[in-house]
Amino acid sequence: MKNGTDTTTAGTTAPLSAKVSPAAKKTLLILNCILLSIGNCGGPLIMRLYFIHGGNRVWLSSSLETAGWPFIVVVLVILYFLRRSAGKHENNNNNKPTTIIYMRPRLFFAVAFIGIVTGLDDYLYAYGVARLPVSTSSLIIASQLGFTAFFAYLLVKQKFTPYTINAVVLLTVGAAVLALHTSSDRPAGESKKEYTLGFVMTVAAALLYGFILPLIELTYNKAKQGITYTLVLEIQMVMCLFATIFCTVGMIINNDFKVIPREAMDFELGKTKYYIIMCVSALIWQCFFLGAIGVIFCSSSLLSGIIIAVLLPVTEVLAVVFYKEKFQAEKGVALVLSLWGFASYFYGEYKLTKKSKNNTESSQPSTELAQTNYSSV
């Protein structure tokens, strides 16, 4: 490890705290993969539920994608008390106060900018979900993987192995197979113009988020300060805060706040379920963003993009189960291709990790820590 960075198995340089053990890093990666899976599959479904039962406020839906940021404040407070308790236990004579905020001004402004861009992406995506079936919008979003790979190469010099290339190709082909029957998915009563505009907006959302993921990784690399998981949470909170502010301004201009009470009264599932859907939507989408940024911290932006892509068929199946959308044979083929691509990527990661471990053991003693030091989390 040099200059506070660590070379990942994907070949990129990702900042990582020197006091986080490999075991803790692996646990964090698994946890964030689970969060990303919940958000990636549940987010589109809960958002579509709002639209198909009478909701039509796009700015409101886009704001809900990041409105759950106060939840992170609770987590940060818990971590603060853990650090303070660990610091007192290690040295009872240490009068140095425990750090409350790790983020420096340089990093704050960079993350605030990413947050505003994320807010724009939220709107583009919400507009697409309002016009397209979940299955269609999800398959379009799968093109995000190609954009992520492209921007990861440009911004963070992502190195590609044959296994990684194979995974990207398989997942992209899977999305192309799904696209064969999109023309028959136009919802009843929706004009061709609205459907086309929703299609274009969703493609734009995929492109923009494909740029955002490597941009977050680049921000880690250029932060000029040690990146701990607490700092990652601070980054996530600031990103979501500014994204929510961006969407809230849109809500104000569009008079959404005046319409919400009336829309709740007219909602097909009832007023109570209307507000429950709002709250659950904010929580599930927060899982998505927290998981995505956590996977980047533990591995790379490309892995985050691959997980999002491989969950596409799962979202497709859930849409069929809950919303009775059609499940053509092409979707089954896409599922097989996605699982194959996912297995290919992780087999390549396994081989690289094993090779790196053997090289380390032959050149120098292991410097792994036995346990995580909570004072540096």
Task: Provide the fold topology.
Blueprint: E1 5-7, E2 13-15, H1 22-52, H2 58-64, H3 70-90, H4 105-131, H5 134-141, H6 144-156, H7 162-178, H8 192-221, H9 229-253, H10 256-266, H11 271-298, H12 301-310, H13 312-323, H14 329-363
Antiparallel strand pairs: 1-2
Helix pairs in contact: 1-11, 1-13, 2-4, 2-9, 3-9, 4-8, 4-9, 5-13, 6-8, 6-12, 7-14, 8-11, 8-12, 9-11, 10-11, 11-12, 12-14, 13-14
Protein name: Probable purine permease
Keywords: Membrane, Transmembrane, Transmembrane helix, Transport
Transmembrane segments: 28-47, 67-86, 107-126, 138-156, 163-183, 195-216, 228-254, 274-297, 302-323, 329-348
List keywords for this structure.
377 residues, mainly alpha, two-stranded antiparallel sheet, globular, disordered N terminus
Report on this model:
The chain is mainly α and 377 residues long. The protein has one domain (23-90, 99-362). The chain contains 14 helices and two strands, in the order ββαααααααααααααα. It has helices at 22-52, 58-64, 70-90, 105-131, 134-141, 144-156, 162-178, 192-221, 229-253, 256-266, 271-298, 301-310, 312-323, 329-363, and strands at 5-7, 13-15. It has a two-stranded antiparallel sheet with strand order 1-2. The longest helix is centred in the C-terminal third of the chain and has 35 residues, at 329-363. The chain is globular. The two termini are 18 Å apart.
